[in-house]
Amino acid sequence: GLEIIPVTITTARGPRTFRAEVAHTPQQQARGLMFRATLAPDAGMIFPMSPPRYASFWMKNTVIPLDMIFIRADGRIARIAAETTPFSLLPVDSGEPVAAVLELAGGRAAQLGLAGGDKVVWKRR
Fold first, then answer.
1. 84/12 Cα distance (integer angstroms)
2. pTM for the complete prediction?
3. Structure confidence by residue, pLDDT tens digits, 19-39
4. Which end of the chain, N or C, is less surrounded by CB atoms within 10 Å?
5. What are the angstrom distances between the C-alpha of 40 and each of 21, 49, 125?
6. What is the largest CA-CA distance in the chain?
7. 3-state secondary structure of 83
8. CA atoms of 28 and 12, how far apart (whole Å)
9. Are 11 and 113 in contact (CB under 8 A)?
C-alpha cells in the first residue's frame, strides 16, 4: 500500500486533518484514486510535485466525485475544483504551478469550509 501521512489544513473554522495516501511515483500518480468505490471523510490522496509544475488531472476510471485541492509552493491553496465528475475525460487544471494536489471525497471542501489561501501542511521529502 501507499505511505499514509497526515495533511492538515488551517481553515477559518480551525484545523482539519486528513489521512492522505501519498502518490509518489509517476505510476502511483497516474492511477490516483481510480477504481475506488469509497473514500472515507477523513481520507484523501496527495500528489507531491517537486519542483512545482502545472498539473492536470482527469477522472477516467474514477468512480466517485472528488474535490481536487491545488496547493502552491508556499503551502497555500491556489484553487479548489469541487465535485469533479466521475469518469469524465475533461482535464481539471491547476491554473498555475503547484507543489501538490490533495484529493478528498467530493463535497468535503465545502462541508469543512476550505478556501483559497488556506494553509496546508504535510511532510515533504
1. 24
2. 0.97
3. 999 999 999 999 999 999 999
4. N
5. 12, 24, 25
6. 36
7. coil
8. 32
9. yes
